Amino acid sequence: MAQKDALANAYAAAAPFGGLASADPGATGAANNELTGGSPAYARKALNWTTASGTGQVTGSATYDVASGSTAAWTFVASSNVAGAATVRDTSDVVDQVFASQGTYAVSYTFTEN
Questions:
Q1: Which has the closest alpha carbon to 97: 85, 105, 89?
Q2: Of the candidates 33, 25, 40, which has an alpha carbon nearest to the alpha carbon of residue 78?
Q3: What distance in Å separates the CA atoms of residue 85 and residue 58, rounded to the nearest whole number?
Q4: Whole-prediction pTM value?
Q5: Which residues of the chain, if any, have pLDDT below 70?
Q6: How do residues 70-102 score in pLDDT, each as one tens digit?
Q7: Residue 28's Cα: distance from chain center in Å?
Q8: 76 in the Ramachandran plot: left (φ > 0), alpha (ψ -120 to 50) or beta?
């Protein structure tokens, strides 16, 4: 189990920030289709992952501000909170939510090393 914990913790260290996109953000490079705008403005969030300890699993969460007229359809984890300057480490399709007005979208992340 120690190796699984080490790999899960390495995943968390490589992907300390999360974000939202309106369509598939892609598997490499900067996140395509990343949300923007709003007041308060959309921004990537630090995930503050847990430390794997005997489980091979880490979890994190974030609540994002989303602008009116946006659709949250994908989430991703990345190496940086700077759009265009980060490497997307992982992506996931989420339940689409269309925002008719400014709102928030909460995401819980889990990575399990199998």
A1: 105
A2: 25
A3: 25
A4: 0.92
A5: 28-30
A6: 999 999 999 999 877 778 999 999 999 999 999
A7: 14
A8: beta
Q: Give yes or no for a contact between 63 and 33, defined as CB atoms under 8 angstroms apart.
A: no
Q: Is the bond preceding residue 16 a cis peptide, omega within 30 degrees?
A: no
CB 18 within 8 A of CB 60: yes
Q: How many helices (H) and strands (E) does the chain have?
A: 1, 6
Please compute Rg for the chain using Cα positions: 14
* Encoded tokens for 80: 């940086």
- Token digits for 68? 């009116």
How is residue 103 written in tokens?
A: 């709102």
Instruction: Please report where in the chains the tokens 């260290």 appear, as a residue.
Output: 13
CA dist., res. 4 & res. 74, Å (int): 27
Which residues have CB under 8 Å from 27's CB, separation 6+?
88, 91
